[in-house]
Specification:
about 500 residues, alpha/beta, nine-stranded mixed sheet, five-stranded parallel sheet, 17 helices, disordered N terminus, binds zinc ion
Length: about 500
């Protein structure tokens, strides 16, 4: 440890002992925070020192407060040691000073719907035809690097396909062996018996749901996700089993409506208000509908009584909602999202091909029955109404849904789309940082830029509090006080996303 060099005064004997004890405690704290980093990880480290001072930087603290100009942020022992008025700091041994005039620092993104896989549609063609079964290849190499490069320092996997890979990845990242964010490993999907996905467990009874939940908690999973075809009885069994052990459960639902799930005690609902099926015509209990909630969203007037009642039910049952706007943006049409060269660079040639095939409506396809522009408008307005009513809205892009939602980049896009929904830039940043931390019960350690919290920070060029697209200009991502080089991480996965 280089900490000893910080002490230069000649102490008396008793003082000396005191200092030794303090140093010992400090070095233990540092050891707990920052493990020895492997060669693989060190390759991406741009800044690592006993003390790091970011001078003259704009602070967007993640609480929704206005940005504060010209601050010094002091990082020590993996934590934010101080936030002070901007000043020049002389370089010293053991202290690295970064002059960040023109840059902003914000909390590391807490991605709440951030998968570690890709969805492959075998033999996809221009008519959007593909062969069964849809497959979900694991991206244990590229996804963690893309997330960290994009500013994500904590993420929830929100449904696992290769749970042992995810659990071991979390262990290796925490041990400093592999680069990546902190991971909340969600267990394998709790899916019902009529699933479309061949790689998911297909539950057939409440008893099996209970056993599955207990098994995966024993294996180390720290969250659960119910999926589209689960029944109310299975969901209830899963919720009770998870809660009995202090673990939260979210859902991408269809067979169970939002209100039903809230009353059963679910903690969070995925995909904003896009997959609530309560007003879908012909909805039968415990059975998913053909439009997966699109009918309901189209029928819900964002300022009407049904919306009000739904939101009140969610808020009164303390059910959070995860906004996943990036995965729906392409459906809104008009050639959205804008093509980003860096996103294309990350993909394999095959993934890039699929990306362009999925971006355009096949010439032979009939126009959609439900106007996508109406769905988009309703979704944005309902997310705003939910927050206005006191609801906890979080953010996560759902990478892979269509091939155009790539880890990291899409987390940034999610923040931009929240601004399109009508949130101010600093509110949007709070939704993508502090709100997720609060949901996970980690808001004492992460989620905002505050003295004493873990130094999980994103340094971006420009001012996202004024121009939200500046969240794309990530330079350095600090995780536990170690600064990672965003560009180097991206370079290491160039052309890999979609393959491994
Ligand atoms: Zn998902």
């Amino acid at each position: 440890m280089h900490l000893k060099r910080a002490v230069s005064a000649k102490p008396t004997q008793s003082r000396c002992l005191w200092i030794v004890i303090v140093l010992l405690v400090m070095s233990l704290a540092v050891a707990a925070q920052t493990p020895e980093l492997s060669k693989t990880v060190q390759e991406f480290v741009r800044v690592q020192a006993p003390k790091i001072v970011l001078t003259h930087v704009r602070v967007i603290d993640g609480t929704g407060a206005p940005a504060v100009e010209d601050q010094n942020v002091v990082i020590q022992g993996g934590k934010i040691a101080a936030i002070e008025k901007g000043a020049d700091v002389p370089a010293a041994e053991g202290t690295t000073v970064l002059n960040l005039g023109g840059y902003s620092v914000m909390p590391g993104i807490v991605g709440m719907h951030n998968h570690l896989f890709y969805i492959a549609r075998p033999n996809l063609d221009a008519n959007r035809h593909f062969d069964e079964p849809v497959l979900v290849p694991q991206m244990t190499f590229s996804a963690p690097r893309l997330y960290l490069a994009g500013g994500v320092t904590t993420m929830r996997t929100t449904g696992s396909i290769e749970p042992y890979s995810d659990l071991n990845l979390r262990r290796d990242i925490d041990a400093g062996k592999l680069p990546g964010p902190h991971i909340d490993v969600t267990a394998p999907y709790l899916e019902g018996s009529t699933s479309y996905f061949i790689q998911m467990p297909h539950l057939t009874s409440p008893e099996q749901a209970r056993e599955t939940v207990n098994y995966w908690i024993d294996m180390g999973a720290t969250s659960f996700k119910a999926y589209m075809n689960i029944t109310r009885a299975e969901l209830k069994a899963a919720i009770d089993a998870a809660h009995a052990r202090g673990i939260k459960i979210t859902g991408h639902l269809c067979s169970v409506t939002y209100k039903e799930a809230a009353e059963l005690g679910i903690d969070d609902l995925e995909h904003g208000f896009e997959v609530n099926t309560e007003l879908d015509p012909g909805k039968k209990p415990d059975v998913c509908t053909p439009t997966d909630g699109a009918e309901t969203l189209a029928r819900m007037d964002p300022s009407g009584p049904e919306t009000k009642e739904l939101i009140q039910t969610l808020v009164s049952h303390h059910v959070a909602v995860t906004s996943t706007l990036p995965v729906f943006e392409a459906e809104a049409g008009d050639g959205r999202p804008p093509v980003r060269q860096q996103v294309l660079d990350a993909m394999t040639p095959e993934a890039r091909e699929d990306y362009f095939l999925l971006r355009q409506r096949p010439p032979s396809a009939p126009p959609p029955k439900i106007d996508p522009a109406v769905l988009w408008k309703h979704e944005l307005a309902m997310e705003r109404a939910f927050v206005a009513a006191g609801g906890l809205l979080m953010s996560g892009p759902d990478p892979t849904g269509r091939g155009d939602v790539v880890p990291g980049f899409s987390d940034q896009r999610g923040i931009e789309l929240l601004v399109e929904a009508g949130f101010t830039p600093v509110e949007a940043i709070k939704i993508a940082t502090l709100n997720g931390a609060s949901y996970m019960g980690k808001d004492k350690e992460i989620g905002s830029v505050a003295t004493g919290k873990n130094a999980d920070l994103v340094v971006v060029k420009g001012d996202p509090s004024k121009q939200i697209s500046d969240v794309e200009n990530v330079e350095i991502v600090f995780k536990d006080g170690v600064g990672y080089d965003s560009k180097k991480l991206l370079e290491s996965v160039r052309g890999r996303y979609g393959q491994y």
